[in-house]
Amino acid sequence: MRARDIMHRDVVTVTPETGLGAIARLLVEKRFGAVPVTDAGGRLVGIVSEADLLHREELGTERRRNRWLDAFASIETLANAYRSAHGRLARDVMARSVVTAGPDAPLSEIVDLMECRHIRRVPIVEAGPDGSERLIGIVTRGDLVRALATLIPVPPAAVTDCDLTDRHLRDMLLAELARQPWTDKTEGNVTVLDGVVHLWGAVTNEAEAQALVTASAGIPGVVAVRDHTFVAHWGADPVML
To answer: Is the Cβ–Cβ distance between 35 and 2 less than 8 Å?
Structure first.
């Protein structure tokens, strides 16, 4: 799937001249975490997030300045800090360097951007004739979760397919485990009785045991999983009785 498949196309935006009071009310009413800033031509010029509204004179949360450190700060840095705390318009506080993606970006790229840049949303832009980025959509973490919800099938309440015998379920699970590099479970470690998977034997750690349960529960027709495995402490001294 690509960004265009899940993005919101009717994006709510503000302009650089929108007042911060209006933006704050918009974020509250729409339950947004941020809002893109566009110019009259629909070109993306910035974004205002909740974080940009935290250090404000009105709240008494303006950043405390260290006069000794200020002596080494540039005039531009000091001026921008003052503008962020005292400005009244979107252009005063908005982030101008916005992480974006194109409509054909794969979802894996979107997720990588969110994780690496520690952001919750990625505006989707399309290059205009003049090289500027025109906003055409936005992908949020919520959009990714909603897409996942449509892709993961809901398991049936009960197994009615007569072909899903215990042997068939066991064969499907063993085939799944054989494809995984994190386990070496063999036929002797897996039994299935009346749709219930029983896992036996030693595992390397708890992570392997939990992954085995996840794999078992993911087999269509499995009604329950019973984990009888134990973590083996390889090389440990024998217990003297």
So the answer is: no
pTM (two decimals):
0.65
- Whether 164 contacts 221, CB under 8 Å: yes
**Tens-digit pLDDT profile for residues 55-67:** 888 888 776 656 6
Contact 200, 191 (CB under 8 A): yes
At 20-74, the pLDDT tens digits run: 999 999 999 999 999 999 999 899 999 999 988 988 888 887 766 566 555 555 6
- The pair of structure tokens assigned to 40 is 């009259």
Evaluate whether 141 touches 114 at the Cβ level (below 8 Å).
yes
For the record, the structure tokens of 88 come out as: 């009244």
∠60-76-100 over CA atoms, to 5°? Answer: 85
Q: What are phi and psi of 130, to 5 degrees?
A: -95, 5
Task: For residue 143, give the nearest of 110, 101, 116 by alpha carbon.
Answer: 110
N-terminal to C-terminal alpha carbon distance within the chain = 60
